Amino acid sequence: MSSRNRRRVRAGTALLAVLAGIGALAAPATAQADSPPENRRTVTYHGYSVDVPTDWQVVDLAENPRACLRLDRPAVYLGRPADQNDCPARVVGRTAGIVVEPITARSAGQATAATARAPRGKATAPSAASRSDTIQIAVEDAGVLVTAAHTPATESLVREVLASAELTAGAERTELPDSGQRSDAAPLAAAGPQPGSYLGKGFDACTAPSQAAMNAWQSSSPYSAVGVYISGSFRGCAQPNLTATWVTNQTNNGWRLIPIDVGRQAPCTSYSLKMSTDPATAKSQGVTAAAGAVSAASSLGIPPGSAIYSDIEAYTSTTSCKAAVLSYLSGWTERLHSSGYLSGFYSSAASGIRDAASEYNNTAYTRVDHIFYAWWNGAADTNTGTYVPSTYWSNHQRIHQYVGEVTESYGGYSINIDRDYLDVGTGTPPPPGCTGVNLNFTAYTTVQSGSTGDLVKAAQCLLQAAGYDPGTPDGIFGPDTATATRNFQSSRGLSADGVVGPRTWTALLSRGTTPTLQNGSTGEAVTRLQRSLTAALGRTVAIDGIFGSGTTQAVRDYQSSRGLGVDGIVGPATWGALQSGK
C-alpha cells in the first residue's frame, strides 16, 4: 500500500469519528457511518495536492468567481476570491473548510505571526498553530497560501487533510514576504477606537467586502459603518479581505467598524458549538473567547478602547440557559476590560438581550458595555420597545439591527446585508490589569505611604489607567505609588504631596469621557460621576450607574459648593471641576 493510500485509510477513519458529531449546522451531505474508509479524492491546485473527503464540495473560484467561501458546510475553495461574492448575510456556524489561493500581494496581507511556513521541498507544516480555530500555512514551493477553518470537533480531521498534502511536478516557488516586508507588519492601525462615537446607519455582511466594493458603497450608499467578523470559532464565512491594511484603509476613508466575534452559542440550542451549562465553566469559556478576540483585534490594528461584540444567536430561554449566557458574557466582559476594550453583546432582542436586561443591576454578573440587538421591525432607531427599559444602555451604547438579509447594490457592487442603526460612544473601559478590583466605596478616605487595603489597590488601578505607573496593584502604598501620585497631582495642578486625599480621589475617579449627563442617564459615565461625587462631597452617593433623584441632588449640591451654575446637569463646567479635583 502506498503512503498516500495509507493516509487515506487513516484520514477516512478520522472522518467517520469526527463528522458524526458535527451537529445541526453540518452540510446535508455529511459522511454516513457505513462510508468506506477510503472515501477520499485528491484535489490539485497550483502544484499543491491534498486528499479531501469525497463529500466535501470542491469549488474552483476561476469557474465560480462569485462563490461564497462558506464554512458551515465542508468544502475546499481553489483560487483567488473575487471582488464580489454571493454570501448570505446570515451564515452562522462552521464545520470544516480549506481555501487554497496563490501567494500574491493581496493574499500575503492575510499572513500573521501565526502563519506557518512549509519547509523547502514540503507541502506540510505539522506544528502549525491554530488561532480562532483557523490554521494557516504558506506552502512557498507551490506558491500557495492555505487557510483551513475548523471547530474543536473537526480540528483532527482538518489536520489529517493538511497532513496529506504533497507537491506536484507543476509546483513553482513563490515566497511569502518576510515579516518585515509584509503589509501587516507595517504600522497599520484603525483611525481610533471602533466603532467610536457615531450616530447613523451601518450594515453587516458575512464576509468583509473587497476594497472596490467598500469604495463604491462609500460614494453612494447611506451607510458609514460596517460590521466585520474578526474572530471566533463559529464564524460562518472565510475572510479573505480582512487584513490590517483593509482595516486601515476603511477607517482612514471614514468607515466605522463594528468588530464581531462568533463563538460558543447558548446551551439550549441545537448548535454544534455550545457553552457549558455550568456557570463557572461558561464564564471561563467567555474569558477564552475574549482573549482570542483581543488577539485578532490587535493583529488587525483595532486598538484598545474599541468595542468587540460577542454574537450569541437567538435561543429559547430557560433559567439555566440564561445563567450560562450571562456567565459567559461576564467572563467575556472582564477579559476585554483587562486589555482595555469595551464589551458588546449581539443577540435577538427577544432572547439574549432581554435576558441581559432582566439582570441589568444584578452584581453577580458583569454587565456588557454595549448591546447590538436584532429586532427586524424596519425602524432605523435605537428604540428597544418592551425588550429593554429605555434607561438601560442609554448613554450611546446601542446598535439596532432593524432589517435582515436584503441585497443592495451601489456603484455596481451588490452585497447581501443586515441593516443596522448605531448610537454609540467610546466610553471608558476599566483600567487594564484591574479586573475584579473594587472601585465602588461608600467613602474614599485618605491613603498615603504605609496604607494598605482595597482603597489603596483602587487608587493604584486608577493611577495606572491615567498613565502613572504605581507598580503592580497590590494594595500596599509604597514608594512607587507615592511617586505616581505626585506625578498625577502635578498634571492636575494639585499639591504634589503624594497623598491621595479628597481632591486627588475626585480627579482620579472622574477621569475619562465627559458626556452631558442628567436625570435618566445611565452607564459607565454615571458610575464615574457617582464615585467622584462621593469623594468630593465627603458623603455617600449611591453608585449604581443610574442618574436618579439622589444623584441629581448630589450634583446640585456640588455645583452650589463650587460656585457653578446649579442646574443638576453635568456638562463641561461640572466635569472640568471634578477632573481638576475641585
Structure explained in plain terms:
It is a single chain. With 582 residues, the chain is an alpha/beta fold. The chain folds into four domains: 128 residues, no CATH class; 227 residues, Glycosidases (TIM Barrel); 76 residues, Orthogonal Bundle (Muramoyl-pentapeptide Carboxypeptidase, domain 1), CATH 1.10.101.10; 70 residues, Orthogonal Bundle (Muramoyl-pentapeptide Carboxypeptidase, domain 1). The chain has 14 helices and 18 strands. The strands form three sheets. The chain has an eight-stranded mixed beta barrel with strand order 11-12-13-14-15-16-17-18, surrounded by five helices. Helix 1 packs antiparallel against helix 3 and helix 6 runs parallel beside helix 7. The longest helix is centred in the middle third of the chain and has 22 residues. Pfam families: PG_binding_1, Rv2525c_GlyHyd-like. Keywords: Signal.
Brief synopsis:
This protein has helices spanning 3-19, 105-108, 155-163, 211-220, 244-252, 279-300, 319-338, 349-358, 454-465, 479-491, 502-510, 524-537, 549-561, 572-579; strands at 40-45, 48-53, 57-60, 75-78, 97-102, 116-117, 130-131, 134-139, 144-149, 166-167, 198-204, 225-231, 256-262, 307-311, 342-348, 370-374, 397-410, 413-424.
Mean pLDDT: 87
In percent, how helical is the residue content? 25-40%
Which segments are poorly predicted (pLDDT under 50) over 5 or more consecutive residues? 1-37, 179-186
Tally of contiguous helical segments: 14
* Euclidean distance between termini CA atoms: 84 Å
Corresponding CATH architecture of the largest domain = Alpha-Beta Barrel
Proportion in β-strands: 15-25%
User: Would you give the CATH topology of the largest domain?
Assistant: TIM Barrel
State the name of the first-level CATH class of the largest domain: Alpha Beta
* Major sheet details: 8 strands, mixed, barrel
Number of DSSP E strands: 18
- So what's the overall shape? elongated
- Find the structural class using helix and strand composition: alpha/beta
Radius of gyration: 26 Å
Give the strand line-up of the largest sheet: 11-12-13-14-15-16-17-18
CATH superfamily of the largest domain: Glycosidases
Summed up, the domain count is 4
